[in-house]
Amino acid sequence: xxxNWLPLRAVLSLIIVLGSWExxxxxxxxxxxxxxxxxAYNSDTLNEYDAxxxxxxxxAHYLRWKLNSLGYRGPELNPGQDSILCIGGSETFxxxxxxxxxxxxxxxxxxxxxxxxKRFQVVNVAFPRDGLPxxxxxxxxxxGKLQPKLAVVxxxxxxxxxxYRKPAPQGLxxxxxxxxxxxxxxxxxxxxxxxxVQTPAKELLIWRATRHEGAxxxxxxxxxxxxxxxxxRLIDMLTTNAVRPILVTHAxxxxxxxxxxxxxxxxxxxxxxxxxxxxxxxxxxxxxxxVIRQFAREKGVAVVDAxxxxxxxxxxxxxxxxxxxxxSAILAKMIADEVLTALRHPDASxxxxxxxxxxxxx
Amino acid sequence: MLxxxxxxxxxxxxxxxxxxxxxxxxxxxxxLVASCYFYASWDWRFLAPLxxxxxxxxxxxxxxxxxxxxxxxxxxxRGYLCLSLVTxxxxxxxxxxxxxxxxxxQEVLATFGYQPSLWSLKIILPVGIxxxxxxxxxxxxxxxxxxxxxxxxxxxxxxxxxxxxHLVAGPIQRAHSLLPQVIRPRVIxxxxxxxxxxxxxxxxxxxxxxxxxxxxxxxxxFLDPSPDGFRVLMGVYAFAFQIxxxxxxxxxxxxxxxxxxxxxxxxxxxxxxxxxxPKEFWSRWHISLSTWLRDYLYVPxxxxxxxxxxxxxxxxxxxxxxxxxxxxxxxxxIWGFYQxxxxxxxxxxxxxxxxxxxxxxxxxxxxxxxxxxxxxxQLTCYGWLIFRAQSLEQIVQLSSSLFRLPWNVDxxxxxxxxxxxxxxxxxxxxxxxxxxxxxxxxxxVSLELRCAVYAVLVYFSLFRGGQPEAFIYFQF
Lengths: 362, 476
Prior knowledge:
heterodimer, A: alpha/beta, 5-stranded parallel beta sheet, 9 strands, 49% helix, globular, B: 2 domains
């Protein structure tokens, strides 16, 4: 080979390698997930935006996440069938569970099994990054369209607090060139890198995000009060529309003490909410869950205490707050029991039962 | 540290970078430190038996060399050979076979009504002990036979044994092949680098894409308490390709990494599933082990020199010991026995087969070649059933399921295996017809085409690989 041509052939070979990878990545996505061959294909595929932020794009699909014609995760709705709403954030939408194993789907199956008939369709109206303010904003439209009988509210606490700090993020600017292979390579790299590398990298990002403002060790009282007001507003909206609410406290992978081997998970969670310290995040969970319990007791609203009922372990949580199939199954079963109680005793308050079944932990 | 771990993917470039910057002697020291680190990353305590046996082997070989130089007869060197054999086989026996023999003895005595309380120790098997023991033994035996001169440098000998690409799963390098490469400065040319990269990419593809994607299918079948005959057949076929791609993938990576440093390792697999008979299979499968067993066991036992009966006995003994080398379990002994039966049967039928084929037309011979390949593959696969089974009961159960009709044909399972294995079959057929193992190395294949094929292989290894599994042969 002529030595003068070597650099040119090397560049050509590099282009061939990168081109082959990109082509394969697109073919792979098309064959496996029915993704469009051209254009971007990432989690943003599921989104459309309005004044409240991102919401589900009708009929969109990305990997195992499929939205129906209303933009909600799950199958098409049956007109005329009684509905149960599931309101929440990414924990309710489902992140790590296998297809159809997110807790709203498992709740539907549990109810069908226990009632012996498909009496309810469970509508998962949750969407990632939704907090209580978003749910309140979207609820009138949802209630008008679906007229549900019951609503399960599993608020994403950190997302709610995030909305108290900043307005809803709007659509992200589209990249001019979207290389799918780079996204795949990045995902693989994240999986391959040991925690001893990933955790310091995340800590560095947290430090950069907080170096000017600092971070809070405790959630300010104003946020707690606002959360209580939001819960109140949401429940009011539901009850005035003849929807029976079931509140669910927020469960995490962490118990009272976070063991050292679980700290990387806590740091990974904090990376999305750097304005709270690790202690601050755990404190937020304790304070806001107590708000939910107290509110439920005072108003006689049914409550499922997932925070105390789901064991904090890696078997139930894939990361800090998102469920595994098993964790979802446990939560679905707890909610199904509460729904059945509500059906048997339409007027009974579950607050007293809750206090008995889930005694306060030290 | 597995070849398919992120740890190794960081370790290797660092070692290579330093290696290229250093002169020869410093390269050897670097490789020694890197090899110790590589091995100690499993468990640093594993280094103890390795260093003990290596030190004794070095000393024994040196003493034998001194005695030979002083003109002493061979008998005087025997003591040192025995010491080396006892040390190596003693360590191997203790770590690998102690519990197996005590438990087996206990079972035998129990059948006669005795209930002795024999020891059973909690022993961790040092990774690769079977491989490095055979490597070290070949050195002392060769020095004893006067076929190879003992080295005067302990560090060179230590590196020849410890050199990380072959340390834990071979190929079992003979001292006469590796030690001179350690001692002499190595020259690395472009062809070696290209060939090394080719082997590494192809090895990773076989391991990560084929073997790791077949692993869950195989596990499902072999964990099924009452599998259907068709599923057993598919499971065994899948295992045949899994174990081949797993082991030959490891070997390819090892050979490729060695090439990047200027070392040449022996070929360990030569399209074994295209063998037409058991004898040919063993000249194509795990060549470094089969030639080791031939040279250090079969031939010293008498080989085929003392008549048919002695030959059959030697073949059977060699194969049973070869089976036992793979693991301390009765299924491996039965597998060795089965391979012995195949070799003996073939030896009996060989003259008749040769005569029958010598009169046929070339077209018939071509057809008969493929018939023999398919037949041999089925026989090999039955051997893999024995090899993979967890117990004698499972061998019986799976065998009876296999021959119990009617089968419940699961086309989806067959398709899943076929699509996973298809790239291997296509490439190996190209290798067979081109009579060249490095399937993209012939000159008419342009750099650009090679890059495109490598890009495909790397893509499938990176993004479509199965759940990372340890290499099967590490347990041996």
